[in-house]
Amino acid sequence: MHIEIYDTTLRDGAQGEGVNFSLEDKVLIARRLDEMGFDFIEGGYPLSNPKDAEFFQRMVAEPLKHSKVCAFGMTRRRGVKPADDPGMKALMESQAPVITIVGKTSDFHVKEVLRVSEQENIDMIAETVEYFVQQGREVIYDAEHFFDGWKANAEYAAKTIAAAASAGAMRIVMCDTNGGTMPEEVARIAGEAAAKVDKPLGIHTHNDCELAVANSLAAIDAGAIHVQGTINGLGERCGNADLISVVANLALKKQGYEVLEQGELDHLTELSRYVYEIANMSYRINQPFVGSSAFAHKGGMHVHAVNRVAESYEHIAPETVGNERRVLVSELSGRSNIIAMTTKHDIDEDKALMDRILREVVDKENAGYQFESAGASFDLLVKRISGTYAPHFELVKFHTSVESRGGQPVTEATVKLLVDDQVRHEVAEGDGPVNALDAALRKALNGSFPNLRGMQLVDYKVRVINSEAATAASVRVVIESRDADGEVWGTVGVDENVIQASWDALVDSIEYKLCKDEGKMA
Amino acid sequence: MHIEIYDTTLRDGAQGEGVNFSLEDKVLIARRLDEMGFDFIEGGYPLSNPKDAEFFQRMVAEPLKHSKVCAFGMTRRRGVKPADDPGMKALMESQAPVITIVGKTSDFHVKEVLRVSEQENIDMIAETVEYFVQQGREVIYDAEHFFDGWKANAEYAAKTIAAAASAGAMRIVMCDTNGGTMPEEVARIAGEAAAKVDKPLGIHTHNDCELAVANSLAAIDAGAIHVQGTINGLGERCGNADLISVVANLALKKQGYEVLEQGELDHLTELSRYVYEIANMSYRINQPFVGSSAFAHKGGMHVHAVNRVAESYEHIAPETVGNERRVLVSELSGRSNIIAMTTKHDIDEDKALMDRILREVVDKENAGYQFESAGASFDLLVKRISGTYAPHFELVKFHTSVESRGGQPVTEATVKLLVDDQVRHEVAEGDGPVNALDAALRKALNGSFPNLRGMQLVDYKVRVINSEAATAASVRVVIESRDADGEVWGTVGVDENVIQASWDALVDSIEYKLCKDEGKMA
């Protein structure tokens, strides 16, 4: 049985505290979900803000390959025709092929929050769904407060979903909007609901009782064929069901369900981290399936057993979801990691060299470096320690300044370098101090290294490492660069001074490019 | 029915990556759990390290009032008598009234990991339990890999727990050691196990499938009367069942269960944060029940409804667990959020003013601002728009520069301000450009505003908003400040230039402090 995966990271996920996606962020995430075979991607609520409306225009201009794009909205306002409702117009203008309409299930909400008659609510649901169906759209109906409504007045709740079903909604989604429902209630009510409508059911849960994943699975076991959630469980309050766990459980733990595209399960860890990176959020190290601790073994007894038989303390093989086993607090594990990471350097498992590299990596990591997203800096470190590194230029000095007189600030940087024993002294302006430094550095180097012209910075991230000391704390800068061949590499710098940390990452990025083009990084 | 709560934060929780408790930490946590009426507190594994052994001596010297202290250990080694086993000796020396013994349930583990005969494993369990019972201790038997073992060979698994039960163990605890079991399997197997032993059952789960809480509840519904877990779900890999969620669900969501001392439920939030503080870990803002986002409302529709009827988007009243409701401001919010956030500004629900504020918030958020963690900047924005804001100083110019000649960079900043029509022109050095600007700004202002001396920056965060354009993209800076009264406030700045964005956030922070001390932010 194929279970439809409906992602609402871009809409419900964006309701989470501290979550804020730019238009470009949303497009990037949608493309990644599309590649992995998600069935539906809810892009936003076009009436609520211009960014969401623009997202749908981007999807029209550059359509996805597999996933269906969904636009979210509410039932029409009371007393107006759907065609005259601004929300309906915004949904039509989105040109999304699927329209997801949320409506009220609970008589309490109809009376106390919406403040319309029970019949008017039924009409609002039926007319809204019917309107989009007549316009040739597929409609998914999200029944808000479904379980609370059913418990309070099952007869009325059943009428609301029957209205949506008769009006042509292709899925009826049972929403545990407040996240307060227990799994046994989900199972029971889902069974009762299935008997009342002839359309397939879906499930949408929230994690307020730490049961969002369990409730999603309970509904599917009771017959739902469609599940809504977000990557990493982002979302309002305690978040939505984490689709990472839902998908992994359906595919690996339960019998008889198919999800996503064949063979995409081993990209779950990558997907999780990609979304965290785009949202500029820290990973949850103990996140089920994809966290960096999910297959980390600390206790000596467990490490010993895992060394004998991996499955003794692992419920699945970590590779299945693209994750990896780690053994903590062990120099041995360190060395085997380093060996794994240095195979391309052709240093023949030289044990003394490995130890020196390991010590340097540990020292750097203690100082705040992180090489996971900075492989180019790691490769340069290995070259430096093994004595095969010759820098292409030498710093004499750099200087950068920002001055403001209340309006647009003026930013300038100078760099003075030795390149092939020649002094190059250049100045440039920029949008900010790092941009200006980068520009001056290129001016000083482009003459000798014309291949730098095809290289550009594609990402720049800053994180304060020890936040207790505020602006005097250390700062980690990670830069991602790309060249004309499409290769992308990451470099890192750490310093108390954000400018120095940025400089170090910039220099590594350029040195890596120059070494690489000389065939010295292979 | 009273459900026994068994806390293993100090033992299994300490296996979590990054978790490390000192002896004093352990004593503090134990006392707190004791006050709240936890039935059992597992203090450690006395054989494994001296700190755990010392913990038990402290518990003997200063006994707890309510909770029973438990010492953890394994069954005796193969081929030795319990009285001669160093693990058994360490357990006896702990003087703990309750001994928790873990033993093997799974024939696979007996054969592949322990490498003893099936009968020897049964003898190890029976003799170990019997030994402690004879010494007058209460014994809890933790059946490791219980569900995996039962699925592989139910007959052998049943024999292992029957051996522990006949030997006198007072509780048989079913452990989902690898965290891979589904709730329906837990329910089924718990039912089968109950038919095989005449001692009460307990449950111990791990969160590898994000189902630890659901599995705990499933076992209790199937008849278990004892549940093991940790505060905040600390623990190896993905952690143990979070007792915060287990307790809250049992007390508030399920019928017929009693947990903890009467009236202690409203200390759960405090307990959660206390354990995070002691472990020096960051809170998980979206943690169920106790996270700071657990009752935070961002979407306009939700805020509107919560203002009408709180329970419309809250599954329980936040006070029940000692938490509180919060309203967040964002582009997703409608006028309701603004009204809720501006009640302290005494602007009488002036609709036109609200609309201007909302428009400004939406414009700012489209430009990359985010006010959720920058309430002070939001309050200043409201004051500016409503015309009640008078700045305490005016910028003439600022200048900041960083220069490096290869070693430690030299960083300097100057600021020139008008304060009460007087020119203040100051210079300072710093660890980085923002630190230097902050120092120069304080030099220029401290004379007129001595109350700034008690204020300090406690956090500084930078994020690039549109990462596609790299160093030329916009940057959002969020600063958190604290004053001598312990009040903490957040401010935000956005600009293409990280220095300008930092300046804007710094100025807001200082202006907020000055307005506040004049009673103008009430």
Automatic annotation (TrEMBL), chains A, B:
Its EC number is 2.3.3.21. Pfam families: HCS_D2 (PF22617), HMGL-like (PF00682), LeuA_dimer (PF08502). GO terms for biological process: isoleucine biosynthetic process; L-leucine biosynthetic process. The keyword Transport does not apply. Residues 3-269 form the Pyruvate carboxyltransferase domain. Pathway: Amino-acid biosynthesis; L-isoleucine biosynthesis; 2-oxobutanoate from pyruvate: step 1/3. Gene3D superfamilies: 1.10.238.260, 3.30.160.270, Aldolase class I. It comes from the Bacteria. The lineage of its organism: Bacteria, Pseudomonadati, Planctomycetota, Planctomycetia, Pirellulales. InterPro entries: 2-isopropylmalate_synth_dimer, AIPM/Hcit_synth_CS, Aldolase_TIM, Citramal_synthase, LeuA/HCS_post-cat, LeuA_allosteric_dom_sf, PYR_CT. GO terms for molecular function: (R)-citramalate synthase activity; 2-isopropylmalate synthase activity. Keywords: Acyltransferase, Amino-acid biosynthesis, Branched-chain amino acid biosynthesis, Isoleucine biosynthesis, Transferase. It comes from Aeoliella mucimassa. CDD domains: DRE_TIM_LeuA3 (cd07941). It catalyses: pyruvate + acetyl-CoA + H2O = (3R)-citramalate + CoA + H(+). Belongs to the alpha-IPM synthase/homocitrate synthase family. PANTHER family: (R)-CITRAMALATE SYNTHASE (PTHR43538:SF1), ALPHA-IPM SYNTHASE/HOMOCITRATE SYNTHASE (PTHR43538). The gene is leuA_2. It is an enzyme of class 2 (transferase). This is Citramalate synthase.
